[in-house]
Write a sequence for this structure.
């Protein structure tokens, strides 16, 4: 099993969700986050004054998936989240040692 964490642009969420669903991802967790990478934030004009926004709003996706769909999920996520512009985000993968469904007690892939 793998845990995939991805940081994406907020407007790409529906497209990413559909792409992941198409490859068999059953669920995911979404959190609103702020951060910056190489883009170093951006400037905005508010009431005639220009100011720098150091932290850009993003979405953090977390999904636990069985090993047999990791490559398909990674590629679906990458393609759906890509705009070709700075700030498209990142995908991180971690080994997931165990999963347990609280309601039924199922473990491992069955819990996903």
């Amino acid at each position: 099993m793998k845990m995939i964490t991805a940081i994406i642009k907020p407007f790409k969420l529906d497209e990413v969700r559909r792409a992941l669903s198409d490859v068999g991802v059953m669920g995911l967790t979404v959190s609103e986050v702020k951060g910056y990478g190489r883009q170093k934030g951006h400037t905005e004009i508010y009431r005639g004054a220009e100011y720098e926004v150091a932290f850009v709003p993003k979405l953090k996706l977390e999904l636990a998936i069985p090993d047999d769909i990791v490559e398909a999920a990674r590629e679906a996520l990458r393609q759906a989240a890509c705009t070709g512009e700075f700030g498209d985000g990142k995908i991180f993968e971690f080994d997931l040692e165990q999963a347990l469904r609280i309601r039924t007690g199922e473990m491992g892939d069955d819990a996903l």
Notes: DSSP finds two helices and six strands in the chain. The first helix runs from residue 13 to 22.
